[in-house]
Amino acid sequence: MMKTTPPKALAIRINLVFLAFSLLLYSILLLCPSASYYHEGVHHKMENGIKKKLMLEEPTKVSSRRALIKREKPSFLDGVGRGMRIGMVNMDDEDVSEWKAHDGQVIHVSYEQVSELLEWKDLFPEWIDEEEEADGPSCPKIPMPDFDKYGYMDMIVVKLPCKAPNEGWSRDVVRLQVHLVAANLAVRRGKLDDKGRMRVVLLSQCMPMVELFTCDELVGREGDWWFYRPEKEKLERKVSLPVGSCNLAMPLWGKGTYVV
């Protein structure tokens, strides 16, 4: 005959089992964070990561915006008419938004910068052999823009490099090239007024080359801004002349150029 467990003893055993299970469940919950807490932690870490990324990217964006140099447009141009086509040379690092006011159109003129290997003495040698044969030296060629790509312009604005007060700053070949680009662009694409003059604005800490832009043609100056009204015929004669005294060493039947 099977021995039966009294009801009181059975109830005690059941209570002990439930108590043990409750303690086990409580321990699990205590040691392991809840799913909601886990997701909140992950979300918080993601937010922190995004904020850090934005903080790292923001200075880059700000610095890129600050890369453009903000200058106030000279006051002597306030009376210039509306809807002008303005050709700009070497102004890529300048903030030109103010020039676009009054429905103006800004046209950036590109060109190939002269080689760093080209020196002033290559264009203007100190000694010239006038008895040089036809196979003698050739004059370097200074690159110019493709003027046929651009239409006529009401005003030419050019930023000139300036290395002053360094020694030899006036004999900078790059500076010479930008002057020649400005003069040739004005002659070929500058619109004329009723007196045959053009508008040329130069931005330079150094005085522009008087060989191309004379003091008589300077009609306004404000800080580093120089405003010229050169006559086309005079400027055209200047740019038609050969660049450099190296041409004197070349016989008339053997003149040529080489690109550096």
Automatic annotation (TrEMBL):
This is UDP-glucuronate:xylan alpha-glucuronosyltransferase 2. It comes from Sesamum calycinum.
